[in-house]
Design a protein that fits this description.
With 117 residues, the protein is mainly beta. It has a single domain, classed as Immunoglobulin-like (Sandwich). The protein is 11% helix and 47% strand.
Length: 117
């Protein structure tokens, strides 16, 4: 019995990352459509995932809600739809250096991303 309680306690501690709901408000100020992905820097998670992207038309704005772990670092990568050589943030492969494109996951918060020409 004591062993089962210890195992249960260990499982609870191992899975205790608090889920949080937050949103990113993306403003595409470019004249071209852009593709956007959000990347966790703390685990192997990408939003929207499954080889999909958030596609945002020229001059449009889009709210992108996600479920993340409280305190998790999330970075955006954006690129011109059809031409990933023109990119912003951490880029399409999450491999570009960026000091201002990462945010901390905070419950019920919204971060704004302005994609400028």
């Amino acid at each position: 019995m004591l062993f089962r309680m210890a195992v249960l306690a260990a499982l609870v501690c191992a899975t205790s990352a608090e889920a949080a709901e937050m949103a990113f408000f993306v403003k595409n100020l470019r004249k071209q459509a852009v593709a956007v992905e959000l990347f966790s820097r703390d685990r192997e998670t990408v939003w929207p995932g499954n080889d999909q992207v958030f596609l945002i038309d020229p001059g449009s704005r889009k709210s992108v809600p996600i479920s993340c772990n409280q305190g998790e670092r999330i970075c955006y990568g954006a690129w011109v739809d059809g031409d990933d050589s023109i990119s912003a943030g951490v880029g399409p492969n999450n491999d570009q250096p960026c000091d201002t494109c990462c945010f901390i996951c905070v419950e019920h918060s919204t971060e704004t991303i302005d994609l400028v020409p």
